[in-house]
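Write out the 3D structure for:
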Amino acid sequence: MGGQQAAGVRLAGPADAATLARLRYSFRAEIGHVTEAEADFLPRCEKWMRQRLGPTSPWRCWVVEADGGVVGQLWAQRIEKLPNPVSELEHHAYITNVYVAPERRGEGLGTRLLEAALAWIRSQDIDAVVLWPTARSRTLYARYGFVERGDCMERRASSG
């Protein structure tokens, strides 16, 4: 690790929003063509994140800190289901925006973020957890019991 400090995982709060917005921009810029200027995106994203990082929000975000700053994040949302008269739990969870800075990849930080989120999910009576993995992250999720399901359908806004 060449002098890099050991990393710690913690729950993010509203004060982390600006840092998390910068990480979000880096993540999405890595995997797609950017269509919004960073100067426009960051304040918009920071405001959105700050509003969702409070204790009453259905959103949670875990960060991994190392070398004096945040180097990764994972977001999860608890989603209500309609009341159910059968023995099926009444919430889902959605995991998204799992990102570790390129210089810290390969150290197990994504694993540590996922483990923190899954611990919270287990405490929330969640029926199913959904996510959209990148090709690179599929093996991580498979190690934790995630499987590709053939019964899910999706409709994108561009579908008409």
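The radius of gyration is 17 Å.
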